[in-house]
Amino acid sequence: MFTVIFLSKSAKAIFDKSKTFFDPFRERGDIAFCEWNESDRALTSLQALPQLKEIIRGKSAWRAVVVDHATPDHHDHARDPENPFDFVDNTRSQLALTDSPHALVRIAHQLLGYPALTAREFIPIVSYLESDGTRVESAEGDNYHEVLSALGRTKSDVRVEFREQPYTEEEMRRHAELRERYRMKEVHPDEVIFISTRSRLDADEAAALHRAWLTETEQHASRFVERNDYPAATRFAVYDLLNPENSGYEQDELRFWLSVLTVAVNALPPSSFQAERVYELGVEFSEPLLGDLLNQHMSRLASLREHLDGLISRPERPPETDVAELLREEVIRVDFESIGGADIAVSTGGYGLASDSPRSESARWAADFDHVQVNATQFVRRPRRVLARAVDTARESSRRYFHDVHVLTDIDRDEIEDELSKRVRSLTEPATAEILDRQRLTTMLEEQNATVRRHISERMSLRTIGVASVLVIAVWFGALTPYMLQAFGRNAEVATWSVFVVATVIVLLAMAGLAALWWMRRRLIALLRDVNRTLRAFVAGVNNGATAFGQYLSGLTTYMHARATLINSGRIQELERLRKRRYLAVRRDVVSAFDAEKRIMTSLGEPLNVRRVASGLAQFDVDDQRELASFFRFPTGNRNAAFNDSGEHVLAPYDFITRLRLERVRLFEHDHLAPDPAEQM
Question: What are the record keywords, sorted (predicted)?
């Protein structure tokens, strides 16, 4: 049956050296280990056993084995030295109706539920007959024996009756809460076995002699299950573990864990392992078989250690690297020749002397400007597509470089770092920052538009020119009329001269007006040509920017190539350092396992015979956990081992295990815990 093993913190502290014996059975699914949170705040099974739900998912039946290691501190403060499952602060046989402060008791509740209510306690009722035949009753306390003796001398038919005292509503409520809190919502285990170490006790001859003189009725079997609120179906086993200072401790610790493993992989007969009893657990070894197995295993470990020593001491010699080749410029081409831009211009022809002749200049400029703005915006988008393709090319190149493998020496690394530090400044301030700035183009066009529109607004329409001309001529003609009248009053020659003067003035005024109009038209044409020059300069800047973009992307790609080489080299060297540390860690594990097995051999008294064996480690991968674990494991058994002296057999996890012992330990209540007759009802 599938078995889940729960290890306490103290049990984990002595488990590592024996873990390898459990691994084959864990990997083939016979057993599993579940984390156990012993905090007094972890009350429910989900809190205390968070992995259990996934471990037993799909299992229709399973067993639980809870392993604890009772340290000397436990003996001094919390537990009965004879029975590590009996906590000295639990003295009452009634349910405590509260969460236990002890993790062992709580995990029993988390696995099997909180115990059902039993009789709370019995009150002695003393009664006797009066002379008129009436029976008189009175409830007594612990001194009811004295009352019985006194009444027996004066009254007739004196008797005592023990009546159960009912639970209060508050006690019933607390019990219901505890039952719900510890109710397991998964499949309950078929059985729960508690196994704990205990220190070997010196026999107390005085206590044994005192107990021998007691009658059977005066000796009370331990009721630790009731006093500690263990559920009724729990089974208990102890292992008397040697003191760590004892020379045979390593062998004894191994016996303990192999006893646990043997119990975990076997369904033991209920008649030989009864609930609510404490049994002493142990296994017997065939020392020659174990000695041969350990010698073979230590020989393999020695071969692995020698192989690791060779890997650790192997010198590191990076291959020679051409730094100049790593820093060779990576060319990224950017070509803007096909994006056009010649159509981005405004027409300078068709503008007359007046602002509305031959047609309205404001309307014409607005149409020309909108056309130019649309073309310029489309033009800006075209190089962005070309540039995006170039950037993708640079990105693909950089990504490809991260797969290049170059192991660099410290000198190579310093040389590359120095060169990159010189190049990084030009990459942080690229000269191409404003070439494709759409906002800059928009601002430039708005400034040109404002200048042209302002000049157009200052020009005169045809009507304004006509009215102004008439007014100027009229003013000048009115001013010269007195002169002409005076001239006509003299002679014909003077009159003719005056007419010539007036005509000349009018002609000069007309020519001045025409010159002013021509100059304003020329100024407008010049502004339009400035707009075209600005646009041509912008287009040329974009086209010329292809070179700048190409240089920038080439420099960036070259930088990324060199930087990727540095990163890859550092990563490879770091992986090599981690691998060396991994070799050292594995070597420490090998040496630790070898020394532990050597101490076991010494305690067994078997001869040490470590031989050189064909290792077959040429392709050994220290990161292959399965292959590495195989060096620490022993071949599992296919034999049976005797079970006690009953003639029954159990499966031996390993062939050197010859017998599983499980003998009942007779435990008795201490004098201050001995139950009175009322509790035995």
Answer: Membrane, Transmembrane, Transmembrane helix
Q: Which residues of 18-38 are buried (b: 16+ CB within 10 A; e: fewer)?
A: beebbebbeeeebbbbbebeb
Report long-range pairs for 217-221 (Cβ below 8 Å, ≥24 apart): 219/668, 220/668, 220/669, 220/674, 220/675, 221/666, 221/667, 221/668, 221/669
- H-type helices in 342-437, by residue range? 361-401, 410-428
Question: Which residue from 678, 673, 660, 676 is spatially nearest to 269, judged by alpha carbons?
Answer: 660
Q: Which of 319, 312, 198, 213 minimizes the C-alpha distance to 252?
A: 198
Other C-beta atoms closer than 10 Å to the C-beta of 78 total 16
Cα torsion 316, 317, 318, 319: sign: negative
Distance from C-alpha of 594 to C-alpha of 599, rounded to nearest angstrom: 9
Q: How confident is the model at residue 393 (pLDDT cuts 50, 70, 90)?
A: low
pLDDT above 90 (res 178): yes
Greater confidence, 44 or 165?
44
CA pair distance 86, 88, nearest whole angstrom: 6
At 7-48, the pLDDT tens digits run 999 999 999 989 989 999 999 999 999 999 999 999 999 999
Bin 605: left if φ > 0, else alpha if -120 < ψ < 50, else beta: left
Sheet architecture: strand order including 278-285: 31-34, 3-7, 63-69, 192-199, 234-241, 278-285, 657-665, 640-643, 648-651
Instruction: Please give the DSSP secondary-structure letter assigned to residue 217.
Output: T
Bigger pLDDT: 402 vs 71: 71
pLDDT at 216: 46
DSSP-assigned letter for residue 44: S
Q: Indicate whether 75 pLDDT > 50.
A: no
**Residue type (1 letter), 372:** V
Q: What distance in Å separates the CA atoms of residue 253 and residue 250, rounded to the nearest whole number?
A: 5
Please calculate the CA angle 154-157-162 and round it to the nearest 5 degrees.
110
Question: CA 339 → CA 336, 387, 440, 546, 548, distances in Å?
Answer: 6, 12, 19, 11, 16
The answer to whether the CB of 68 falls within 8 A of the CB of 8 is yes
Is it the case that residue 72 has pLDDT exceeding 50? Answer: yes
Percent of the chain at pLDDT above 90?
28
Assess contact for 68 and 10: CB atoms under 8 A: yes
Q: How many CB atoms sit inside 10 A of residue 499's CB?
A: 14
Which of 65, 73, 77 minimizes the C-alpha distance to 107? 65
What is the residue type of 512? A
Strand partners of residue 194: 66, 236
pTM for the complete prediction?
Answer: 0.64
d(CA 390, CA 388): 5
Is the pLDDT confidence value at 389 over 70?
no
**Most confident segment among 316-330, 396-410, 435-449:** 435-449
* Torsion sign over Cα 673, 675, 679, 681: positive
Cα torsion at 614, 616, 617, 621 (round to 10°)? -150
Q: Which two tokens stand for residue 477?
A: 């003609």
**Do β-strands 31-34 and 3-7 pair in parallel, antiparallel, or remain unpaired?**
parallel
pLDDT tens figures, 202-218: 555 555 554 554 444 44
Residue 125 burial (10 A CB sphere; 0-12, 13-18, 19+):
middle
Q: 392 is written with which tokens?
A: 């993708």
Full DSSP string of 614-655: ----TT--TT-HHHHHHHH--PPP-SEEEETTTTEEEE-SST
Q: How far apart are CA 562 and CA 423, in angstroms?
A: 11
Would you tell me how many other CB atoms lie within 10 Å of the CB of residue 69? Answer: 23
pLDDT of residue 340: 59
Say whether pLDDT at 643 is over 60. yes
pLDDT value of position 311: 84
